[in-house]
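Handover notes (outgoing to incoming on-call)

Open items:
1. Putative RNA-binding Zn ribbon-like protein: sequence verified, structure written out, both below. Nothing else pending on this one.
2. Nothing else urgent.
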Amino acid sequence: MEIRWLTVGTLFYRQRVEFPTLGTEPLPVELANTLHGTDDLIGTAERAGEWFAEMGQAPVDAGRARKLRDSVHRLFTAVVDGVAPDRADITVVNGFATPTRLELDWSADGPVSRWRDTTLGGTAVLGRIATRAVELLAGPDALRRCTAPGCSMFFVRDHPRRRWCTPSCGHRDRQARYYRRKRPEVSP
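Putative RNA-binding Zn ribbon-like protein structure tokens:
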């Protein structure tokens, strides 16, 4: 694969991968961020397979992955916009999460958590993503959307003052505000 410029949202990457990721976010957030307006980074079975491989996950059924991603994306949007979600999206995420659960175990080093899957492969991967999405939606983590102009990426706010998905989005936003303040008034 050749190195090329790839633009998604307002993120610019020069890298060997086809899929820009924030790299610091939970997998459900990274999956939801594969949808940018009309741009679908996992729109084909091949692209979905490449994305999941890039994320270090087992191959999944592309149609099921998009179904889960679309529901998670709409639920995340509802949370950050403060509106009630569609019950159908809740049902979809719960359906994917059902065969997967996180269990507590105790080792010589103390408590550990382990995934218990009643399915294998790609179905288990989607189950873990759905379960983690439920934890994000119902838990204390502050899910946010980037406030930089033109960016719609989700992220988990790990600091009270964080407003952007990446430092580059923050830099562009600050530059735009500075330009608006310093720009001379234009008369009609």
